[in-house]
Structures are given as C-alpha cells and as structure tokens.
Amino acid sequence: MPSQQQNLTDRSMAIGLRALNRFAGSPVVDRLGLREQAERFLYSASKTTMRTAASAGRTFAAAQKLTSPARQPTGHSSGLFDLTPTDEQKMLSDSVRDFALQRLRPAALEADGTCTPPPELLTQSDDLGLTMIGVPEELGGAVTERSAVTAVLMSEALAQGDMGLAVACLAPAAVSTALSLWGNEDQQATYLPEFVGESIPAASLAVLEPRVLFNPFKLETRARRTSGGYVLNGVKSLVPRAADGELFIVAAALDGRDPALFIVEATAGGIAVEPEPAMGIRAAATGRLTFEDVELPAGALIADGSAEVYAECIQLGRIGWSALAVGTGQAVLDYVIPYVKDRTAFGEPIANRQAIAFAVSDIAIELDGLRLATYRAASRADQGKSFAREAALARRLTTQHGMSIGSEGVQLLGGHGYVKEHPVERWYRDLRAAGLMEGVLLV
Amino acid sequence: MINLEVPKKYGFLVGQAHQVAAEVMRPNSRKYDRAEHTYPKELDMLAAVIDGMNESGALSGAGAAGATRGGSSGNGSSPKSESTRNGSNLANVLSVAEVSWGDVGLLLTMPGQGLGNSAIAAVANEEQLERFGGKWAAMAITEPEAGSDSASIRTTATLDGDEYVLNGEKIFVTSGDRAELIVVWASLDRNQGRAAIKSFVVERNNPGLKLDRLEHKLGIRASDTANFVLSDCRVPKENLLGNPEIEAKQGFAGVMQTFDNTRPLVAAMALGVARACLEETRERLTEAGIRIDYDDPPQSQSAAAAEFIAMEADYEAARLLTLQAAWMADNSKPNSLQASMAKAKAGRTGTDIALRCVALCGSIGYGEGELLEKWARDAKILDIFEGTQQIQLLVVARQLLGKSSSELK
Asked: Which CATH class is domain B136-241?
C-alpha cells in the first residue's frame, strides 16, 4: 500500500511538473523518484554563535539584458460568483497536496525538532516549480497568468502537510514573485534566471522586526541614500532559512520615511545571522538577521520605493499566511474527526457527545469562513481590485479563528493532544504564527 | 474561476431592494416596534410594487417565498459542465439581506412572503402550486412541547373520507394572524415517528383553526407571532403537501428539505441586520474621531477600531458562507452542510455584532433614539428560528462525523 501511494504521488507530481516545468520535462520525474537522498545537514536549534551568511552566497549576474521588465498578464473573470478553481489550479494544488501529505507530513516531526528542513525535501519542492508560479513565461515562468488565487491554493495545500516546511519551501517563491511583480528589467535579468533554473537559491522576504506591537508600516530598519546607493541598518526577525539565505528582500524605511523594499545579496558585507528558533514553524529554520552598515548598490531599491507596492506586498503576505492557516486548519479538522469517532469514553465514542461534536462543527465553520475570506482577498488582487480591506479581514480571522482551531485541536485529543505522538500540538504552535507573521510569503 | 464578488447583474436588484429598505422599512421601523400587533399598512402598497417587480424579475425573492427547489428552478437552462451559474438562490439571499438592512421585522411580515410559501414552493405539486400560488402562507411547526425536536410533534391528522381532521396546538407562527394560509405540520400516525409527519395547508379562516393569542416579543415586533389551537380542523385531503404515504426513509426528509432552502435566507437576514449595525456604528465612530485602518495591525490602533475590524471580519466570513450555500443551490450541489454552517455563523455573528455595536455606541446605542438597540433585539431571533444555533451545530456535526440522529443526539 505505501509503495502504491508513493507511485501515485510521483505520478501526480509529474503531471504538475509537466505543466509547470517547460524545460525540465521527464528527467525531473526520474529525479523525484530515484534521486539518491542528499546528505542531510542538521543544524542545532540551540546554536547561538553569530556567523556571517556571506560564505554560502552565490554570485548573481545578468546573463542577458532585458529592455523592459516582464509581467504576467492577469486572468479574465466572467464576473460570476464562482468557487470552482480552474483546471490548472486544481491540478497544481492536487499535486502539491499529495507532496505535502506524503512527503512533508512524515518529515515534519523531526524537522520541527531540529529546526531544519530536510534538503532533499527542499529540492523536491523546488522541482514542483513553486518559485516559478509567479514568474512571467518569457522569463521561464510556469503559468500563463498572474494569480494570487493559484498561490493561495498551493500554499494551503502545502500547509496541509506541515506549516513549517511549507514556509521553508515557499520562502524563495516570495522573492521570485516580488521580483516578477515589481522588479525592473535589470533586477529581473540579474536574479530571476536563478529562480527558474536547476538550483533554486535559498531566499527570503524579511519584514518582521523583533519588538512588541510591530507595525510593518513603521519600520526601525533604515536605508540611507548615499552617493553610490544605500546603507542598510537594522534587525529582521524570524527570517526563514536565514542561515542558508543567498538573497533577501528586506523592508526598510528609506531615509527615515516611508518603508520600501531592497534587494540584499547575502555576500554584501555587514550581515550577521543567528538562529532564532520559536514556538512553531521551526522547520523553516527561522533566524534573525542583523544589518550593520550594509552597502547596497543603487539598483537595490524595488519599485522606486513606491508606497503602493510596499502596502501590496504586506497585504499579499498576510493573505499568504491566511492560506497557510487554512491548510493547517484543514489538517486539524481531518485529524480530529477520526480521532473523536474512535476514542471511547463512558462506553461510547466521544463524538456522540454534543460538547465534542459541536467543537468539531465550530472548527469546520470557522475554517470555511476563513478559507472563503482568504480566497476573496486573493481573487480581488487578481482582478486588479483593491484588497486592503479583504486582506485585513482574512488576517483578523486568521489571528482569531486560526488560533482557536489549533487550540481546539489539542483540546479534543486531551492529554494525547499535548504530546508529540500526535501532530496537533505542533499545529497549535504553528497556527499561532499565521496571525502575527509579516512578510515571508507573497501570493 | 474563483471569484467571490457579487456579479454586476445583481446591481439593479440590490439597488431596488435597498430603496425599499431605505424608503419604506427604515422610516417605519420604530413605529411598528412600538405598535406591536398593529398591521403595517404601508406594506400593502409595497407588496403591490413587489408583485410588479417579481413579474419583471427585478426583485425576485424579497422575502422568504424566494426560496426555490435547488438550482433547477433558477432561470430555466441547465448548467453547462464547465460554467457556473448565478441564479435565484443567490438573488434571494442578496435581496433578503438588503431588505433586512432596512428592517427584518417588517421583512418577515411582508404580505405573500411567508415561510409557508417556501414550503409550498419546495414540496407542492403542480395542482397545489396553482391553487395556493400568490397567497400569503405562514408556517406552523413548533408546539408547546416540541421546538427544535420537530419530529416529536403531537398535532395529529386523521383521514376521514375526503378530508384530514387536524387536532393539536401550534405556537410561534410567524405572520400566523395575517397570512391567508397556514402550513401545519402534523403526524398521520404518532407511532411511526418522523416518517409520519406531513404538512397540510389550512386556510386561515377555517373554523377549526382558532387564534389563541399573539405573543409579545423581545424584537421583530412588526411581525406578528400567533399561537393556534386546532380542534377538529378539517381540510381537503388534496391539501396535504407532498406524498401522503408514510415512507420510513423519505417522509421527514421531504419536510426537512425546506430548511436547506430557508436557512441561507435566515442567514441573509442576520447579515442585513449586522450590516445595518456596522454601518451605523462606523458612522458614529468616525464622528467621534476614530480612524479605522486596514493596513495597520489592529493592535496598534484604538481598541474601538480593532473591535470594529474584528466584527467586520466575522461579518465577512458569515456573508461568504451564506453566498457559498446559495451558489451551491444554484449549481445543484447538495448544500445541506453549507446551509447550516451559514445559518450557524450568521446567526451568532449577527447577535454578537449587534450587541457589541450597542456597547460601542454607549447610551446612543442603548437608547430608543436610534435603532441600534432595536436591531440588537431583532437579531436574536435569527439565531433561534429555522433551527437554533445548537441545531445547526448538530446538523453540521452529524454530517462531518457521519453520525445518525440516534447516535449523536
């Protein structure tokens, strides 16, 4: 049975890949199934020594000049209320869900403990083409139309396997999507080829800062304009795969005023990274980045520091976190249903008690409400409509109900929910992240 | 393609409903809240206008009568496999929400728009549709000893020649005094449980149907709530809706299927009331200098702004769940689960939002000078009738867990 399932996974991943990966074709399928497991490098979560990230970075250089930036066209809606995903969306999310349930889920416990995403899983997820979803076709991208909904559906599917690993897998995609949406021709030519190539760089979108009541529109990380470019100073918190990161997009207040996005290569001097393990999403290998007089070239600023672009970036990130909460919330619901039906107390399944059954109903109701609100925000983004309000509402539902779903998941299993034999304690910790994280994701 | 915006084609419908709500409902809200049991004569003229709009299709289903049988009676054509349909169910929830924004009590007593009309629309045969169409029909299910547990009703129906003879007591009949017809639930054989429960159309002027009293209520006072005694109330046997045979599986499901259609409508009512509260509160907060920002995290805004965003978020979830249930009905997808999820979420959210808005607005919200306190009283019934919050959670849980009503009581 397990081998059969595995074949199914490979097959459905292959289907997704064929659509996605225009230049890789069938060899990737072989790689997925037959590739020798890469050696695993484990980093201890307790490692506290500061070290520069510079050594790991690759050199980014434009192989080819672009005359103008490429953008994905947006899709065309019939204008009718519709909850049906397109065939392409369904195929992509189905294959990602298979990958998530059969590859991420079994690896989640250990990755959570070691605060390290298994390298072979990252390679496999790269092969799924996550970083190519948001890239225009002429730059080697995967899908014809710009779609935040597609990204939402794929994020949701990944997080159904494991949120921490989903974050690790999706982090580089946020960077490639940002460059695709807002990068100029030089930025796209320099960086995007790496995100559609064979070896996807570890990359992250760093917004969050370590302080209470953090507001992404009032940053303490600052970029100062100089004659040759910018000088960056500040601290970013809970950056996924920070230690391995080769490329960052960093949010910083420009000249002490409005926040803006900067491209920062890990090889730039003055970047220190330290592990920052947290309550959850530990498999994303979160770390803290410190920038001390980091010199950036003049071409590092994205979208000329546009305030609209920055706000959109924050909103799309929040929608991404809502999508992850939906996926993990679904995992909770799917887990507690068989549990409460099997678990017997006082002579019958506990599911026969209203106190238990109603808790399950409430999870399902709030989860579906959160899912629809998330879809709405993303679909408005796709249609070029304002979505600040809708993103905020999905965010608020994530903060409140995402958290309660995690809590109820543990509660329904009682003492068994509190121990690591069951995944609900991890989901409890992960779901708390979804309502407070900023940046990292971009749908 | 996933899109959760209301299509432009409903703009006219919603606009019409909004005018009705703003021009007819709102100005009469307080008047009939105070003058309980007084017939709102303003609605007669409105009913005529609405009939005209219904003819033109402009305001289909401004009331509960808009509930239809699944998607099949939408606008005729069957859905193509790849295309989605936005039909009468979606139109109904939109217009019901809009009119409820005006006044949900007045909506409930709109002539010709009773819940009995939904039952007739859902279960009646062609001959009955012909005979009862166009008449205002109320619904009588609840009894003093049977509320949510509608399978245990005691009213009986006995066949005597060409007539059924009904005996029993019915309470909480919305528009019971004003309607022309009452759809009465009764058992053909109390020993055969839910399968024997059938619905019967009783003319309001039937001598065997005696009005016992009209209730004095917390809210929705514009709508009369009648209690009846049925004593040897004789109706032609052709007035039984649906199949007269007692079939172990089918019977109760038939009468219950009405609820799949009406629950999203009650959810829509709660949405209307909630939106009225949110709009009024937002205006008051803005006057008081409270700024609501959707980009700044709620916790870095004022407590009032954060609370407002929280309420709006739950309103959004309730609203989308309701649209989802209606969309599924329009596309002939079984929606019993989603209809109950929508009703549960909208019912509790409506009450919660209304009560919190009253608190945010202080004595302005609590006083009779404004309508917030009335809306907070009105909202509560929407988490009770057509299946209480707890019944919805039960329906949802039984489906999710695959439990029968005997396993999960």
From this structure: mainly beta
Considering the domain architecture, whether residues A350 and A274 belong to the same structural domain is answered as no
Question: How far does A388 lie from chain B, in Å, by closest CA?
Answer: 6
Which pTM value belongs to this model? Answer: 0.91
Q: Residue A364 is nearest to which of B1, B2, B341, comparing CB atoms?
A: B341
| Other Cβ atoms within 10 Å of B224 Cβ, number | 24
**Is B386 known to be catalytic?**
yes
ipTM: 0.92
Average the pLDDT over A259-284 and give the result. 97
A81 is a domain residue: no
Buried residues in B61-81 as b, exposed as e (16+ CB within 10 A)? bbbbbbbbbbbeebeeeeeee
Q: Is residue A439 part of a domain?
A: no
Closest by CA position to A239, among listed A277, A278, A204: A204
Whether residue A395 sits in one domain with residue A366: yes
Hey, is the C-beta of B153 within 8 angstroms of any chain A C-beta? no
B residues 62-101 closer than 8 Å to A (CB)? 83-86, 90
Q: Is B394 on the interface with A (CB under 8 A)?
A: yes
Residue of chain A nearest B310, judged by CA positions: A396
Mean pLDDT of chain A: 88
- Residue A251 structural domain: 222-305
Q: In the CATH scheme, what architecture does the domain B250-401 have?
A: Up-down Bundle (1.20)
User: Are residues A293 and A365 both part of a single domain?
Assistant: no
Task: Give the pLDDT confidence of B156-173 residue by residue, as tens digits.
Answer: 999 999 999 999 999 999
Average pLDDT over residues A42-61: 50
Other residues' Cβ atoms within 10 Å of the Cβ of residue B160: 11
Are residues B3 and A362, on separate chains, in Cβ contact within 8 Å? no
End of a domain among A305, A336, A366?
A: A305
Q: What is the CATH number of the domain that holds A324?
A: 1.20.140.10
CA distance A425 to A417: 6
Task: Please tell me what DSSP assigns to residue A71.
Answer: -
Residue A376 Cα, gap to closest chain B Cα (Å): 5
Which residues is A262 bridged to in the sheet? A250, A301
Domain ranges of chain B: 8-123, 136-241, 250-401
Query: Which of B4, B86, B300 lies at the smallest CB-CB distance from A215?
Result: B300
